[in-house]
Predict the 3D structure of the following.
Amino acid sequence: MKQSRRDFLKTAGILGAGLAGLAPKKALAAPKNVLSDDRMGVLVDTTLCIGCRRCEYACKVAHDLPSDPIESYNDRSVFAQKRRPDPSALTVVNEFENPVAGRASINVKTQCRHCDYPACVSACIVGAFSKQENGAVIWDEGKCIGCRYCMVACPFQVPTFEYEKALQPEIRKCDFCFKRTGEGKIPACVEICPMEVMKYGKRHELVELAHQRIKDNPGRYIDRVYGEYEVGGTSWLYLASKEFEKLDFPELGPDPAPGASESLQHAIFAYFVPPISLFALLGGIMWISKRGKESEEE
Amino acid sequence: MKKILFILIIGLGAVYAQPAGEKHHAQMPLDCKSCHVCERPTYEKPCLKIMPEFTRRRGITVYHRAEDAPAVMKIDVLSNLYEPTIFTHKLHAEMADMAGGCVSCHHFNPPGRIAPCRECHDPNATGTDLSKPGLKGAYHRQCLSCHREWSHSNECSVCHAVKGDPSAATAAAVKSAKQEIKHPKITEPAKLVYQTGADEGAIVTFYHDDHAQRYGLACVSCHQNESCSRCHDTMKETAAVEKEPHDNCMACHAEEIDNRCELCHGAREKPRFDHELTGFSLARFHSSVDCKECHGQQGRRRVAKPDASCIACHKGWNATNFDHRITGLALDENHIENDCSDCHANQNFNAPPTCTDCHDDLSYPKDLPGRKVD
């Protein structure tokens, strides 16, 4: 069957209009986000952390990643550089100078914050990331196509990629010990910590606990719970003795991180109108120019 | 029948009523929230806090002295993995005097036996109790918050020796416990000269030895929240500067802090306090007299000016039993019979004696009523 360009455009136009009519009132490109009231979280009290890095060890063991013997973690020379999580270490501890002269340095554990409105979930074009009911943000390596949009989207620069692997490289990040918590255990890092720096519990109870600690020890903490409101709230919450920005925490507003990128993405595809208009415009230009050529030939 | 019922009701009422004079604690001036978590506590569900904050400091009812503390504690919770940890308890109790005291570990100490840590801090904690750390966390927080500050190390082996191989640290702890080793006497500075930021009189001189020895201030009256690392820190060169320098002096010198800056602040170092300047020399007879003997003890308040006349303290002295030679002047035979007030008008022994009552042409000290002796 021979279909003229005019016929194709007509069909496309009718189809587009029909689809636009069928489309729901609000664009639902945003993934389903189940925020259970009882979702879990972790409160990290950085004023207690001594930088023993036992959490790094426990994390590797719990995730079947190769690890040096536990004694090797006593080596504090690693603190010379600020480290980020990488495919072989899903959590790392960094060290910062204490502003109070003569007091011990400040150690901060970092890993995925498990946002309530995760940018990685929103950015993932194949739906490999998902926010679970217990608060964990996990990913499905079977679905992942390795586009690394999640790495760009994450406001905390957490997801990491196995660059050195040529075949089937994986995206890796802290999964909030999804498997362990499913078995009724607590996250491996929380369990091993000798100082009980971390508390694992319901997020709303942890927020309360954090504010109680600030109230009881106003001299010990600055009056802010990092993660309570940042990017719409995160499952991991932090207490600190000095400004979070000085501990390499990014300065983030209360709006969920996916907000900007999502609205832009969604605007481009809203009701299919912009793409159809674009194609209609291009088609129109082509049609006009072709007709001009045809009339010249005639 | 009615009468019996009435008596019964009255009787029951009396049994169930609160004893007279004893208020229900809800009527006491207490904040319910100090002990109860929920809005409406009931007897069935009192929703009590595990350890109310006020019990940490003010709720302590029993204090013990460091000297009475047990010398060592053997901590063997992990005896399946490690040799027991020997904690030199008395040594730490002594050190804690200047760093928060016993309460920094024993937050809550009701009368009776001393509650062991594990009674509140669960040895088998699963990390889900948000109200308090488990035993592992409680121990490590107490030890490491100081230890890592002065040793800059988190080495587990300092306390945990692998089973069958007691570490040097454990051996040292056992030795110190046997010999009752105490914290070595802290070398105390004679004086401290502070360069302050004050516009006028930037230099403050503090005579530490005078305050500690002469005025009898206990170390802990100023040094309350000292960190061990202030002295025990090889990586640090300078001592931490007091945050609020006036705070320590406030208890005794509140008036001077408000009105007489120049008492401490000056353009150069101040000389040591000299009693001579008050007009009453201590040099000859009173150098070994405790300040309290004359100035009384009024808590930590500054001492009031005492009556400086001799007989204010030496009440029994008179012309017949006082040997005038000890003043450095042996009276001659003409004066030795005199009454004290004949020369010392109004018994004021600080003022120069008057001669004019008897002698028109003589005066002290040009003319002496005797001869000088040593």
In short: The interface with chain B takes residues 48, 50-52, 74, 76, 100-104, 186, 190-191, 193-196, 198-201, 205-206, 209, 216 of chain A (CB under 8 Å). Confidence is low (pLDDT under 50) at residues 11-31 of chain A. Residues 20 and 273 of chain A are 7 Å apart (CA to CA).
